[in-house]
Amino acid sequence: MKERREETVRRERCVPPPGRDRRGGGKPAVVLVAVLAALLWACSREPSGRSDADVVVAEVDNAAITLRDVRNEVLSMRGYAPSLEAKGASRREVSEAIRLLVERSIVLREGERRGVSVSSSELEEEVMRFRADFPPGGLEKALLQVGIDADTWREQLRRSLLYRKSASSVASSLASVAPAEVEEAYRKEGRQAPVPERIRIRQHLFDSMEAAAAARERILRSGGEEAEDDPAASGVDLGFFSKDDLPPELPPELFRLKEGDVSEPVLREGAASLFQVTARETARVPSLRTEEGRIREAILSERREAAFRQWLAQASAKPAVKVRSDLLEKLVEGKR
Questions:
Q1: Please, are residues 102 and 57 in contact by the beta-carbon 8 Å criterion?
Q2: Is the C-alpha dihedral spanning 268, 273, 277, 281 positive or negative?
Q3: Model pTM score
Q4: In the chain, is it the N or the C terminus that has fewer CB atoms within a 10 Å radius of its CB?
Q5: Sign of the alpha-carbon dihedral angle for 80, 84, 86, 87
Q6: DSSP 2-62
């Protein structure tokens, strides 16, 4: 569990590529710092006192990617393992780092042109998803252990969300599916078994059982809604579950609750949780009408991914993307 939590923090230190977004931060290794310092002195005609953040190794639509960005991306890919940080950057590492940085910049710039943004409530919900994996104070402790402060992590998490929303906006505009295709896919699936009853569950996380109990009373009094300005009570959507799919750590009595009702507080690993039933689907026999949305999304998902990759490859090859391969080669070679 501890390893999974540490990996969770490492995973979101940076902005992931399509589907996952990775970015850097943390404390650079002594040897790598020495290599980078030598590179600043030797790789160009810039003054020797310039920092890594001032040395531009690539541009995407006039947005700069610096030597520090490449260094941080390499360290991020390594997971900040001390035994790996002591080594210089390999050609494969530098190549992968610059590819991720360029692709990320392309997608974020396109998202900016499309007006894509991340609201404070979206960010808070994502933060809560991570907090749910930790006891009270555990997330902050894990961040300290990997050398990143909470504000920096939140900003990187915001950029991760912004990347994913931007990529989704691009991909959604590139793919479509006709009703006839949905009907054909439904026929190919053949006769399906009845779908059992399912409930949608939202988890609310608190520091104490007392706080959870007080929040439960407020939710019930308000008819199933909690105050929007209470980040802890905004909760995390866990999705739909049937009785057979319900994880053992969730209260089994959830299926006896009405839509909008909330469970009694549950204490697990030092944190208190409330589980709220936010929606309920009755058991049904599958038909084209009931399965149309699922089938359409399955077809679109595959097409979006292929179309997005093609779009990204074409965008990366445009003149607006400029890479200083001479500077990157010096980083690989470890020259002065």
A1: no
A2: negative
A3: 0.66
A4: N
A5: negative
A6: HHHHHHHHHHTSSB-TTTT-B---SPPPHHHHHHHHHHHHHSSSS-TT--GGG-EEEEETT
Q: In this structure, are strands 271-281 and 266-268 parallel, antiparallel, or unpaired?
A: antiparallel
In three-state secondary structure terms, 331 is: helix
Residue closest to 12 by CA, chosen among 142, 145, 156: 156
Q: Could you report the per-residue pLDDT of 47-92, keeping only the tens digit for each?
A: 344 566 678 889 998 889 988 888 888 888 877 644 444 457 788 8
State which residues of the chain have pLDDT below 50: 1-49, 81-86, 227-229, 231-233, 336
Do 277 and 258 contact (CB within 8 A), yes or no? yes
Q: Model confidence over 160-178: pLDDT tens digits? A: 999 999 999 999 999 999 9
Backbone phi, psi, residue 292, to 5°: -60, -45
183 vs 120: CA distance, rounded Å: 40
Identify residue 181 by its one-letter amino acid code: E
